[in-house]
Amino acid sequence: MEYVKGVPLLRPYIDYDNQEFWLAHREEKLVFQKCTYCGKIIHRPKPMCPACLSTDMEWIESTGLGTIYSWTTFVYDRAAYPGIRVPYIVVLVEMSEGVRLVSNIEDVTSEEMYIGMPVEVFFDKVSDDLTLPKFRKRKVKK
Amino acid sequence: MKSIKNKVAIVGIGLSGFSKDCKKTELRMACEAIKDALDDAGLTPRDIDGMIKQTDDSADEHAITSAMGMPNLTFYGETRWAGAPCGMVMQAATGVAAGACHTAVIYRAVNGGSGLRSTPSMRSSGQLSTADLLHWAFHSPFGLMTEQGAVAMLAERYMYEYDIKKDQFGPITVTCRQNGAKNPNSAYFKKPITMKDYKESKMVTDPLRALDCYEKFDAAAAFIVTTPERAKYLNHPPVMILGAAQGSVPETENMCGYYRDDVTGLPEMAVMGKRLFKMAGVKPKDIKFAQLDDAYTPLVPMQLEALGFCKKGKGVNFCGDGKKIKAGGRLPVNTAGGSLGEGHIHGMNHVIEAVHQIRGTATLQVKNAKIGLVATGAGGPAGGLILGR
Amino acid sequence: MTVNYNKNEMIPAPVVDPDSKAFWDAVQNQELVFQKCGDCGRLRHPPRPVCPKCRSLNIEWEPSSGKGTIYSKTIYRKSPHPGMKAPFTVVLVELDEGLKLISNMVDIKNDDIKIGMQVEVVFDNLTDDLNLPKFRKVD
Known about the structure:
The structure holds three protein chains of three kinds.
Chain A: H1 19-24, E1 31-35, E2 41-42, E3 57-61, E4 65-74, E5 88-95, E6 100-104, E7 118-127, E8 130-137
Chain B: E1 9-15, H1 26-41, E2 50-54, H2 61-68, E3 75-79, H3 84-98, E4 103-111, H4 130-138, H5 147-162, H6 170-180, H7 195-200, E5 203-206, E6 208-209, E7 218-226, H8 228-231, E8 239-247, H9 267-280, E9 289-291, H10 299-306, H11 315-319, H12 338-341, H13 348-359, E10 371-376, E11 382-388
Parallel strand pairs in B: 2-3, 2-4, 9-10
Antiparallel strand pairs in B: 1-7, 1-8, 4-7, 5-6, 8-11, 10-11
Chain C: E1 4-5, H1 21-28, E2 33-37, E3 43-44, E4 59-63, E5 67-76, E6 84-85, E7 88-95, E8 100-103, E9 118-127, E10 130-137
Antiparallel strand pairs in C: 1-6, 2-3, 2-4, 5-7, 5-9, 7-8, 9-10
């Protein structure tokens, strides 16, 4: 994915509920929230477990493995954010932990995209202070 | 007139502590307060089908339904301005009374102390509303750009008109702080003040001293309302809504209203009070306690006047040295401390204390507290409730 | 002057909208004008699109006498804005036409400003394109 130089990057809004998720990316780790009380794995980060209303949360490292649940391609630059060169693909990945994550996929054209495609995480160092989890096609051993 | 009188009960309350920096998001604070209110009532998130928010709050309906797993939300609404706590209860109650929902939650969560929240006078769209625009256009160029100054201007003329002397508002803040000093949840627990402290407090916007004005805190609160039928099966005896109203008149602005003939009182509170008492079918003499907007001390006597507890200009006399408004007095006011003596969460804690009084679970319990009044948003669009058993 | 501005900072300027533009345009020309209903003649301030008395949308602008009395006041001991130095006084002036206006005083000490004091309008030229209507004590 190509970022347009000179256009400010869109940055995540980091708060007390989600900071562990975003800060882990600097160490190239993808983490998800897990309710300490009932064990539910949660994404996006929330202040309270929607299953049991506990506020005790821990963070687990993801396997980084998932499959494409859905996807779309941004083609028209006026409809998209000008800081990213079109076309680019946004994916909704279903992770092996059972949660879904919005991200991008690299090295795949929209002609090659399909729902159910196995993918794995990698970390894109977008700038000195922003690293984002993104995905690549994953080979599955038969 | 058909009304919501006796058709809706407050059955659950939740109130956080008051902190200068609680290091939590407003969403988390809201969720925790709602959970406390659910636990208090004996309900679960599945039971909630109505939700009322304050327009300026950052924690919104869908973030809360996601975080708390509320699968049945079918009714939501919002209101804003300082009268919102009572106004939100009224909106929820109209939903319940009309059958649009069965059990509704009302909440506020504000990082007022740590200041993480967005500019309060900006709407979520980032645009100024027309009322805000009028304010910014004609007041800000002259430096009148805080609530404190807006109320000070009103208070100065009020003092001039009714011959009120310097420091006569003092007993109000002293009473609130003495009440709050006995309330373990108060930011001022075990920290009462005296008139000496008041007189030594620095002038901030004449005639207001620092101790005439509330302090900002991080805090959150929530209430749950439902039908009297369902209330029977819940944890506490229901607190019935006997009357509810909001109030606005021409030239009402946030905390002021300078473009009317008389700028010495709260006509929005008067129009609210008229409807409130009529709906409840009671008179000021029937009220056993009042939780009044005490964000700034001069608002308290002005509310007593507007609501008919005393004649115009006699509110300061009514408060006197604090004897009448103390617990055990003719009309105990802000028995948990209110904004000045417990902490400021925009009047939400005033509703909660009224519920405690009616239930009989208050720290400073008023005897025979079977009917009480809450007023919020004195110097702006007003809100009020009359609650009873 | 009762307001000392910090010229290195932005001065809080009025937010002008289509309803209030004529008021502020007049102020820039050192005139104080008020909205007048084009049908029933009722004066009103601040400017609004509708007459609250007869609900007419017709608007005229009437020059003010510029004379009035102090109706109320407050002294800011701490400045709410970096462009203005505290302490300064904000006044609510009741003009002879019966309208009220928020403003500041010039050429007077904060403690000398009293309710009931007779005043007249002056124009404080803050920048090339910003005048504000302010008031001066009339002896």
